[in-house]
Amino acid sequence: MAEDFNTEQKRYLEGFASGIAAARMTGGLSLGQAPAGGVSEPTGPDAIHIKAQEKTVKAGGKLCDQEKWKRAENPFEGHNRLIEEAATGKAPKPEDNFRWRYHGLFWVAPAQNSYMCRLRIPNGILHHWQFSGIADLADAHGGGYAHVTTRANLQVREITPEHGQPFLDGLIDLGLTARGAGADNIRNVTGSPVAGIDAQELLDTRPLARSWHNWILNDRSLFGLPRKFNVAFDGGGVLPVLEETNDIGFQAITVREGAAVAPGVWMRLVLGGISGHRDLARDTGVVLRPEDCNRVADAILRVFIENGDRTNRNKSRMKYVLDAWGFEKYLAVVEEKLGRKLDRVDPAHVKPRGGFDRYAHIGVHGQAQAGLNWVGVVLPVGKMTTDEMRALAEIARECGDGQIRLTVWQNFLFSGVPDARVAEVEARVAALGFTTRASSIRAGLVACTGNRGCKFAASDTKGHALVIADYIEARVTELDVPVNLHLTGCHHSCAQHYIGDIGLIGAKVVVSDEGDTVEGYDIVVGGGFGDSPKIGTEIWKAVKADDCPGRVEALLRAYLAGREGPSESFQA
Ligand code: SF4
C-alpha cells in the first residue's frame, strides 16, 4: 500500500482499516464521525469511488496512476488551481492533463502543442445559433475549425492554455458544456439523428438522451469511473445509432401480446459494447419502460464503479466485469441495487425491427411531417472551417427548422426543410464545397483524428482517408452502392474500424533492415452494425499507407465481381 499513496491518503486508509477516525481527504470526501472505538465510513459523492479503490488495495492491487490522481485531488475541486496555472501559458503536468479532461480539455502534444476541447451535445442536436457560436469561439480561442466526431459531437482544436477556460466559459454562454467529455467519465450521449422526424421510429430519443445527459451532470458520484463509458438510445427508426458499440445501449422495440410484460413500446437493454476490444453489446433480455432508463443505467454504473478494475487500464471497461461475472450475475447485483426485479421478455415476443437505411444520413429524405425534409450533408472526414460553420448555420436558420443534427458518421443533417427550399439548400451546400449527393465511398468515410492531432496515432488517418476517397472515386466509377470505410489511428478505435465494411487501423510498417518505418495500416473487412452487427476480420497486416488505395480498390473490385447484384451488401 505504501508506495501507492501519499502520506495523507495512507493515513486515511490505515485509519479506516483499524477503526481510528481518519483525516479528511481532499477531493470532496467528507468522512463521517467515527463512533467511539468504531470505524468511520467515507461519505459524500466520492465515497463510492474511495471504497472501490480501498477494496482494490486491500486485495493487494496496485492502483493505476489515474486512480491515484483522482484520489490526490478531485478534478472539480481542483478546477480553480488548474485555471490559474493554465493562465500562465504552461503545458499541464500529466496528472493535470488528466484532470482537465473532466472539463472537456485534452492536451494533445506532441501532435499539437495545445488543447482540444470535446463538447457534450445530447443526441447530437444543436440550434443554429449554438453552431455559429461555437465557430466564433473556435476563432477567438482555437484554430478556426471544428471536427464532427463519431459520437455525434464537436471537437475544437489548437486552444492554447490561457484560452482553455475562456473557451469553456463561452460554451456555458451558449447553453452548452464540455463537463465530463473526457477521462474516466460518461461520454456524449447519442441518439437517433432523425429523432422526432422519422416516420418509422417507435420512440423519440431526444428527451431520453437529454434527460440522461442532465442526470449525469447533476450527480458528481457518476464521474471518475474505472474507465470511460458510453450510452446510446436507438428509437427504432431508419438510421442506426451504433448502440451496439456502447457500454449500455437502449433499443426501442415493440412487445407483442402474450409476453410477460404489457404489449407496447419498451426499451431493450444491451450491454458491453466496445468495438475496439472486438466486442459488441449483447441483448440481456431485459426490457424497460422508457422513463426507467435513467434509474437502471444509474444502477448499472454503480455496479461498475464498485467492481471495475482500477489497476489495469486495458481491463478496466465494464465489458471485463461482464466477462468475469456473466450477464446474469451482473444483472442480479443491479436488481439488488434497484430493490426490484427487472422485466424480461422472450425475443419471440418482440416484433421484428423496421429496416435500416444505412445511408439515410446523406441526401434528401421526407420527414414524418408532410412537406418537410431532412437533408444530410457529407463533411469530408468531419472537418469544417469556422466560415463554413457560420454559413451552414445560416442555411439551417433560413431554410430549415433552425437545427443542425450531427451524426456518428461524422456528417450532419438539416431538418425541417420545406419541399420548396430543398433545391436551395442543396445549391448553397454545394457552393460551400460540400455535397448532399455523396459518392458511395465518401458517404461512408469515417476517420479518427490521426497523427495530425493525436499522439497515439500511428498514421495520418484523415489525410489518408481523403487520398483513398479521391483514388477510388477516380477509378472505381462502377461502384453503385455505399461502402463504409473506417480509418482509425490506434487500438483505441475511435473510428470503429472493426464495424466498417473495410476498416484500417494505423500501424508502423518496417521498411528496412535498420528498422526504419513508414505509416501504414492493418486492414480488416466484413464488419457490420445495425441489422448485421459483426466484428471484421483482419486480412492484411502492415500495409504501407501508399499501398492502401490499391488494396481498397482490389477489395471493391472483388466485391463488384463476386456479388449477385447491388442488393448484396459488401459484408455478405
Ligand atoms: Fe487518437 Fe487512437 Fe482515437 Fe485515433 S483511435 S483519435 S489515434 S486515440
TrEMBL record:
Q: Its domain of life?
A: Bacteria
All copies of domain Nitrite/Sulfite reductase ferredoxin-like, residue ranges = 113-171, 365-431
Could you tell me which residue ranges the Nitrite/sulphite reductase 4Fe-4S domain spans? 183-341, 445-572
Matches recorded under InterPro entries: Cbl_synth_CobG-like (IPR012798), NIR_SIR_4Fe-4S (IPR051329), NiRdtase/SiRdtase_haem-b_fer (IPR005117), Nit/Sulf_reduc_fer-like_dom_sf (IPR036136), NO2/SO3_Rdtase_4Fe4S_dom (IPR006067), NO2/SO3_Rdtase_4Fe4S_sf (IPR045854), NO2/SO3_Rdtase_FeS/sirohaem_BS (IPR006066)
Fetch the PROSITE patterns from UniProt.
NIR_SIR (PS00365)
Keywords in alphabetical order: 4Fe-4S, Heme, Iron, Iron-sulfur, Metal-binding, Oxidoreductase
Q: Which SUPFAM superfamilies match?
A: Nitrite and sulphite reductase 4Fe-4S domain-like, Nitrite/Sulfite reductase N-terminal domain-like
In its UniProt record, a GO molecular function of this protein is: 4 iron, 4 sulfur cluster binding
The entry assigns this protein to a family as follows: Belongs to the nitrite and sulfite reductase 4Fe-4S domain family.
PANTHER family registered for this protein in UniProt: FERREDOXIN--NITRITE REDUCTASE, CHLOROPLASTIC (PTHR32439:SF0)
Identify this protein by name. NirA family protein
What is the originating organism of this protein?
A: Methylobacterium durans
